[in-house]
Specification:
By secondary structure, the protein is an all-alpha fold. The chain contains 11 helices and no strands. The protein has one domain. The protein is globular.
């Protein structure tokens, strides 16, 4: 893989990670079309995206860390994220190998997951329960756990981690911006854990030239994610999630057509 290809995949990762359209699906499909498929690269450059969000929310993170010994709100915020992260960690440990060796290779699974998620999102935009949680930081612990359970579905490529958590948030009566922001917060521990696990799995295969490619993708993902997060929140406040749902459906149908063509 050339550095240019690594940068291109990093930009795709950063632009799609926090939108409910599945960054993993975009990277796997792009890799298939460009002749490069490496799930380890896909997972490891995701850290660039999450570090971008951590940079954007650095004041909040610093306040929580500093307040852990004495601030009840800081401890509650940390506990909220722990409760929401645990289901995905357990699901990853139980099903991670199956997901990477089987599901990551199936364009049909990716396409169906994209279309199904888009339909669910459209239905929620029309029939979702009235929101009662307007601040992501005030999400009740039971709701946080429920969103974490929804995040487990994102092990299936095409579901989208942000899509699953946002849908979970809407179902549990968070308003749109709060659901999106909770998804950002939850990405931090979840994706750092995924990166650490993947690094342990492939550490013996990381030749210097491969590390350089990952570094290029990492930086590209960081920059593009840092650019997209704030505009995404503003867009959601104005227009909701329906445009992303329609995009998912169109992209998913395209993936299914690509899978059908590949079988002929």
């Amino acid at each position: 893989m050339t550095f240019l290809l690594a940068a291109l995949l990093g930009v795709i990762q950063g632009l799609t990670e926090f939108l409910p359209i599945s960054s993993t699906a975009h990277l796997l499909v792009a890799g298939r079309l460009l002749g490069y498929e490496d799930p380890a690269f896909t997972v490891m450059i995701q850290l660039g995206s999450v570090l971008a969000v951590m940079w954007l929310y650095r004041a909040k993170i610093a306040a929580v860390v500093a307040g852990l010994p004495s601030d009840r709100d800081a401890r509650r915020f940390a506990l909220m994220l722990i409760v929401a992260t645990v289901p995905a960690l357990l699901g990853g440990l139980a099903f991670g190998d199956f997901v990477q060796t089987i599901l990551f290779r199936s364009l049909q699974v990716i396409g169906i997951a994209l279309v199904a998620g888009g339909i669910v999102m459209l239905l929620l935009e029309r029939f979702r329960p009235a929101p009662v949680v307007l601040d992501a930081e005030r999400t009740p612990l039971g709701h946080a756990f429920g969103i974490g359970v929804c995040q487990m579905l994102a092990l299936v490529p095409g579901v989208s981690r942000s899509g699953a958590t946002i849908i979970g948030g809407l179902l549990l009566r968070l308003d749109r911006p709060a659901a999106a922001e909770f998804s950002f917060f939850l990405a931090m521990p979840t994706m750092v854990a995924a990166f650490a696990y993947e690094l342990m799995e492939v550490r013996g295969q990381l030749a210097p030239e491969r590390m350089a490619e990952i570094a290029v993708g990492f930086v590209a993902a960081f920059v593009s994610a840092a650019v997209i997060v704030r505009p995404f929140l503003l867009f959601v406040r104005r227009s909701g999630f329906a445009p992303f749902a329609w995009y998912r459906i169109a992209f998913g149908l395209g993936v299914l057509m690509l899978a059908e063509a590949g079988q002929r």
